[in-house]
User: Fold these one by one.
Assistant:
Number 1:
Amino acid sequence: MNKIVETAYKALDNKKGINIKVIDISKVSVIADYFIIASGSNTKHVKALADNVEDELGKLGYHAKQVEGYNTANWILLDYNDAIIHIFNESDRLFYDLERIWRDGQLIEM
């Protein structure tokens, strides 16, 4: 398993991320190998999840090449090249439904 994926998953889990999913999209997309999708209960929680992921990956020398959505915290995207982390508030996660869109990827049990 990819070190970024393992560390990001643990960082989300340690801050009580909701319904964390890891999807291997390497066979269906060239944009990344993995999507990690999680929810927070409110904007403060969504930001705390993103902050913890960045902190934990930063300790290992990994830095997001792009961060989007942090100010509104409805959907924060952290792009680590091979792994893209999506942290949603619960209503936006239901609306965008990335799990359905990327259903051809392989769900990874963590």
Note: The mean pLDDT is 96.
Number 2:
Amino acid sequence: MTDTTDSADEQPIDEEALVEKTAPEDRAVAGPLDEAEAPVRPYVDLGGLRIVPRPGMQMRLEVEEKTKRIVAVTLEHEGSTVQLQPFAAPRSEGIWLPVREVLRGQLERQGAAVEEAEGPLGPELRARLTVGPDGAPRAVRIIGVDGPRWMLQGLIGGKAALDDDEAAKAFELFRSTVVCRGAQPMPPRELIPLSAPKAV
């Protein structure tokens, strides 16, 4: 989770200082969708996210040890993983650009090789991490899309981080996700609350 630097959800607008939103042109149709845009269909309700169930897909909730709160949901499907985190954002600008810069700095300080590339949804980070006792490199792709007062971040691992055909399936999982931000005021970059599913 990135640090929040703004103290309120809505700030006076300086047109020249606004950060442009990063999202595909068809986001409102092809996703990731806002709850106001989502069709009526079965979903797994996780509070801030709704997930489309799929045969063979496993879902894991990532819990922060100290606070016991759910901080992400990871979808595992056909040898790939997609970790999802929804963040609050201002109405008038995007946050994926500054968040991307923070993430890149964090990864590079950890010794990862990081490059920014243009992906199917816009700018993304591609990194190779050294993890595990054997020091074997692990490839990840970090994607993000700005929506209406939210940003959905995804961390792609497994086969999809290395193979474009597998990546297309992971992007489909990401884009089928619905973000439920709610109307309550939230500071930009604050994690939208997630909860255990009511039914799976």
Note: The first helix runs from residue 27 to 30.
